Amino acid sequence: MLPRFDLLRPTTVAEAVGCLSEESVPYCGGTELLLAMRAGLYRPSALVDIKRVPELRGIRLRDGVLSIGAATSHRVVALDALVRGQLPMLATVEQGVGNARVRAQGSVGGNLCFAEPKSDLATALVAYEASVSLTSAGGTREVLVSELIQGAYFADKEPDELLVSIEIPLPGDHDAVYLKYQTMERPTVGVAVMNDRSGRRCRVVVGAVGEVPVVWEGTDPSEVVPDEIAELVDPVVDLTGSARYKRHVTAVYVRRALRALEGSHPS
Amino acid sequence: MSDVPRPLKIAGQSVRRRDLVEKVTGAAEYCVDVTMPGMLHAKVVRSDRAHARILEINTGEALAHRGVVAVVTAADLKPLFPRFGHIIADHWILASGKVRYYGEPVALVVAESLADATDAAELVRVDYDDLPAVLDAEEALAAGAALVHEESYPATADDSFKILAGGVHETDASVEDRPTNLAHEVTLEWGDVDQAFADAAVVVESQAGYPMLYAYAMEPYNAVASYGDGELRVVSTAQHPYMVREDLARVFGLPLAKVRVIAPYLGGGYGSKSYTKVEPLAALGSWVTRRPVKLVLDIEESIYTTRVDSAQVQVRSAFAADGTILARAFDIVMDSGAYADNSPLVLAKCVNRCFGPYRVPNLRVRGRSVYTNTAPASSYRGFGAPQGNLAGETNLDRAAEQLGIDPADIRRRNLVAKGESLLPGKRGMDAELVADLDMVVASLERDRRDEPGYGIGFGCAASDAGAFPVSTAQVRIQTDGSVTVLSGSTEMGQGSRSLLAQVAAEELGVDLDQVAVVQSDTAITPYERTTGASRTTTLVGLALQRACADARAKIRQMAAEVAGVSPESVADAPGGVELPDGSTAGFGDVVQRWFGGSAGEVTGIGLLRREGPTQEMPPFWEIGMVGVGVDVDLETGHVVVDQLVTVADVGFAVNPKAVEGQDLGAATQGLGAALYEELVYDGPQLVNANVVDYRVPRMGDLPRKIDLMLAERRDGVGPYGAKGAGEGTLNPIGGAVAAAVARAVGRWPTRLPLTPERVWRLANGIEEDD
Fold it and tell me: B76, B214, B421, B555: which has the fewest C-beta neighbours closer than 10 Å?
């Protein structure tokens, strides 16, 4: 059962930021936080409910950057016309996060702040070179998602900071795919490939298999050697497999992702 | 009653479940919904080590916590009988002197609110002195191993265990002079096994590991108990309320009639709610505080309360060149955890069932149930059959491969015929196994694909149903002719409420909507031994038929009295009687006229014991006949089940849709153990005692093709020729999947579940530790 806590309900970002401390933490979808509290792993004295802060919701396109409010649910992102039109891979990823309840309830900001190593979203955002905007009483800073995710369940975010939005710079002429291998509740490995043809850049990001997403960068998908990427990952050994097996399926899924990328090539 | 079979009107129809709407809408009452006036809440303090002496339990801080009424420990058990267990009463209600597994109840905090009890439970300080622990069966059997139990416990007086376990040459070596970690040992032997092996054309040796499982009823164990005035009332998640009543009466020294156990709808049982679980804890809390106490476990606590016996089985079989079985030898070791519970019977049944429904002229089986410092194991759907069948069937499939014989043909050659003896002294086979197997193979072959990574497998099982024929039922005929059925059999999702209504409606000739069914309240509903071993249709069905016949006889007698004719001249009619003048009277008319006014009621009583059709054990053989086709992703080892084929050899399906549902459920549960499910210990503690990491089958895992067939040959002893259903289909699934995967990847697995990594390693010949 849930331990006792106070519930604070700010309506503006400024107000919300004023409520935050080591003991007083943001609460939105609760899909991770409440489980941790129920399991007795975490006992904040207050939850700051950010669901009533309008600034934290919605998806906007500004100056070639897609901005997603932190409190936006996975489901809303998955179904959003802008996302589907501009970043179809992200829409696909969000359509496949967790299960229907998690997608309806869980927020994108919460997903990143929790730094769950098996996050599909983080892997995809790293492929897009997305960043997040963190606000505290002292001001606002931008951090790349690849730097925000420091380790398993460890994000570079101070207790008095609020993740306000995710900022994704729109790539030009590009193809992107995300493929995941999932046999349990969470993925064993997730592979995002982002091929920015106009910029002559190709990124392969492998998530879920290690504590943090691993990034490979080059200029063209033809340079990717799946077995070499498999050597880059540092697998976490758990019930979904040994290190040897996880490296092996990493190579398999990088190969499959590259094949899917070829198949997704616009005519 | 004439001998001419009458056409059936309601039995045999796929009627809608009685509990459907209330369960779908959430209106159905489960135990967790039950409250009692002045109720307190309890939280269990559990051992955080595998094996340790308890030096001191400091309850002071917890007692000082807001809302706490009592902290109960083993010291409070002194005036009571402190243990439970229906075969070996070895299970301490609260750990006394030492703890035997991580998760064992050490104390019970009782408080005004669940929040208070939960918070205060963390304040109970237990000082331990660690003891060496035995964490698996191999360790436990090793020379000089630490003992889980230093003392041996006398067996309970219930001799039905022996009758249920019974193979004729069985020996029982459970109680030894010098204590060991052997909880129970069973051997079964006939013929000259050594000679047969010497004469064999081919000897095939194999081993099979069956995983440690959790039965995964959606509803965790919970109970609410009230003790007062020398009476105990308990509402709980018990499959067998009458068996729980016996344990509670012994613990508290109460007459059986003063202990009332009620089981509302169960949110799944699968054997895991057989026998006593949390009832003594809740009752103890109430006994100490003299207020009602509610105890609701969470999933992790439930997993640590009862799991499934894991098993390691070695098999050797001797064959003639044509595939005829000459001899089989099995060695079974089950890890039964810290307390025996029902594992001795699970073991005995595993011994009886491991060699399959085949003619085995020479047989030797040794089975051992071993105490370890892990969560206690007990009954699970299939009852020892899934563990044993996997080993036996895989061995047979490997023999077919070695002998170059089709795996269906080697089975056809060896399956026992109808009427033939499978276990000496037991009822002959009451099913046509070759015909069933032919149905499976034909369906499977129809959609078989010849592609790399595709394989089919099938398996056969026959279980000597552990259904001890003690059953009673009552029907109460009301003044309007409607009928109340009373049964001590529990509705746990299997559909007995609908089935019993169908039987009563059929027997009495009334509409289905005129029948109400009341179940599982030891103060109201008549005795039922258990709700297990797929017994309800057959045994409760027979008792209910007798209750209906008794009611009819009484009504005929009353009608004769009222009409002034001889009882023999009154005949049965649908929903009433026919008098000699050709007129008819409804049940209600007769009742009203006999009592006078619009009052009264007639009760029919049906009693069933070991005599007549149910003299021979088992009352029926529960058949399992399945086939699967699998697709293996050869790069990852991920297995997708493409086809599932089952035959329900049930004699007669009283509710065909319900039988199909039971078969699909049993098969799906079997697929869980075959492909996904396994409790994993890392040291003293489980690493996956939660719903996220303990992976059960999901909707998306369901096979692409599902062919659920019925074989209705009216060859059972139950009503209309029915036999039990609900477990059989689970039993051969593991072996069928193992064979299908082996044929897809080219190597034979030696353990379940066939997780992707295991299959990938198998396909590539990479050892597990490499």
Answer: B421
